[in-house]
Amino acid sequence: MLTSPRHASGTDRVNEVAKKFDYPFVVNLQGDEPLIPRRLVRDFARKLTELDDNSLLTCVSHATIEGKDNPNVVKAVLNNNDEALYFSRAPIPFDRDGGGKTMFTHWGVYGFTKGALERFCAFPQGKLEKREKLEQLRALENGMRIQCITTRDRCSGIDTPEDAEAFRKSVEGL
Prior knowledge:
By secondary structure, this protein is an alpha+beta fold. About 30% of the residues lie in helices and about 20% in strands. The longest helix is centred in the first third of the chain and has 11 residues, at about 40-50.
């Protein structure tokens, strides 16, 4: 569906469309994530039903060495309950001692109850969201929880023209 060009983020566009339907849950699977495995979609749908109106759901996987310093690869820091503490384009958390601790990569998929989606979209863009150009920071800046599913699958988003070309080559002839 065509949405208003005035929206600050993809989630704001999804909210405009979601208002036209009567569904209890909404998933924003961003267009730059075309290869999310079916199994992960099923796990995501099951976990989505556990959310409340102050939470959203997303996916993370273990970051690769190649993506660590790439600003197109969004990194996530989680607490002990698999909830996001922060997202950044910078390599976080900083590995001061060089111990090679786990770093997580964020995937472009979000799940909401309809109430949580409306709540999220009612907040103005925050300072961190504008600075990092990461819409999920709007939720954290306003006290919403972001539950994360950790998957062993590799994130293969399309963030650059080179990524798009590699994707085209990988699906040719399918």
